Amino acid sequence: MEYAGDRWVQRLRDGVVPQPWPVLLGAVLLSVGATVAIVAEFSGPAFFEHVTGSKARFGAVVFPAFLVVLGVAIVIGTWWSGRRDRRTLRRIRAGGSEPAFFLPVTTRNIRVTDEFPRPRPEIWTVDAVGLHGWVPQADRPVFALPWSEIRTIDLATKDVRGVRTDYALWFDTTDGGHRVLTPRTTLGRPFEAGQTGLDVLMRVLRSLRRELDRTT
C-alpha cells in the first residue's frame, strides 16, 4: 500500500482515533485569547481611538468574536465527531472482521446529486470485496460499493474563483454513474481533508485495490 509508512495513513489503516486534546487545547486557547482581545478593546477604547480609525476598531472587535465562535465550534465538532466515530468503530469490529482501511467522510456534500440516501455513511471500510459505508446507529453497512462496480478512482474538482480545485474522491462506476466521497482529515475530526490529503487517499485506495486483488 502506498504511503504505508505515513503516520496519518497508519492510523486510518488501523482504525485509530487520535487523542482529541491537542485540537481541543488549541481551540480553547484560541477562544480565550480572542476573548481577552475583546475585553481589552472595550476596557481601553481610548488607546484604540488614538492609534486606529473607526473601521479598524470595528474589525478589532468582530474578528476576535469570530475567533471565539470558531474555537467553540471546533471543540463541539471534535467532541461530536469523536463520539460518533468511536461508536461506529465498535459496530464495525463487533462482527469480528478487521478492514484493511478506514475512510472517514463528511456527510455534507457539495452537490445534492452526489449525496447518499439517509442515513448517510460516516465511515467507509475497505476490504477485498470493496467499500462499505457505516453509520453509528446500525450494526451492518448501510451502503456497499464493490470493486467490481468501480471503474476508476480519481479526484473530484470544482471551480473556485476560476481555479480548478480538488474537493473529494470520485468513483466512476460501471453503470455509467459515479459516487463522490468527501474525506475528513482523520477519524474523530470534523474537518475536510485538503488537496494534498485527497491525493494521498486516492493513491492509497488505488494501491489497496491492487494489493487486495492479488490476495483473492
Task: Describe this protein with a few key phrases.
single chain, 216 residues, alpha+beta, four-stranded antiparallel beta sheet, three-stranded antiparallel beta sheet, 5 helices, 20% strand
- Total count of helical runs of at least 4 residues: 5
Please, what is the average pLDDT? 84
Helix content: 40-55%
Task: Label the structural class.
Answer: alpha+beta
Main pleated sheet = 4 strands, antiparallel
**Overall geometry:** globular
| Gyration radius, rounded | 21 Å
| String of helices and strands | HHHHEEEEEEEH
Overview of the molecule:
The radius of gyration is 21 Å and the shape is globular. By secondary structure, it is α+β, with helices and mostly antiparallel strands. Helix 2 packs antiparallel against helix 4 (54-94). The longest helix is centred in the middle third of the chain and has 41 residues, at 54-94. 46% of the residues lie in helices and 20% in strands.
Please give the structural blueprint.
Elements: H1 7-14, H2 21-43, H3 45-51, H4 54-94, E1 101-104, E2 123-126, E3 130-134, E4 143-146, E5 150-160, E6 163-173, E7 178-181, H5 195-215
Antiparallel strand pairs: 1-2, 2-3, 3-4, 5-6, 6-7
Helix pairs in contact: 2-4
